[in-house]
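ok so I'm stuck.
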Amino acid sequence: MHLVQPLLDRLRQVLSEARMLHALGVTHVSCALAALHGLNVEHAAIAGLLHDQSKELAPDFIRTDLQRLSIHIPDEDLDFPSTWHGFHAAAVAQAEYGINEPDILQAVMLHTTGDAGMGPLAQALFIADFAEPCRRRGMAPAVLQTARRSLEEGFALALQAKARHMLGRKGFRLHPKALRALKTYLPRDQWQSLLAGDGTGSARS
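replied:
not stuck anymore, here's the structure
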């Protein structure tokens, strides 16, 4: 847990109080799920603290800083600047903290959109980001109850609930990664039903 204190110190510098509380809530839930399902709790704590450390940075700054690190935003992410904070946080984790564990980096990068091929830690962080106590979302208790029993089922429920909410918001487009996640982890009839409305929405948080 040697990285926890440096990460906490950084969060106090770069996040508002409300976002800091969210990060702590996500960390708590992700660690609890990790412990329940035999995952690496330290990795869960690090991912939880990292996931939103770049959330309050301007997209232009994120783009410039990634260029400084010789990292380019993937083409499919270019039209979704609200999701860049996960990509940037993972890059900073590697460059500044020497964090190279694939499960941590995947969890941080995909906590906003999801994607196909989500590992258990990434699923736990996605659930925690959706359902930590500060969110006060109506589906949060059901998601957490399900996730305690089955991480995979809890993730699918969180993914479905988040997509339903975002697809109802006019003017947002579904990220290609979120679409892949829906098609991978939900039964065909469920994701087809979700997309049968107006086909718009953006998986972001």
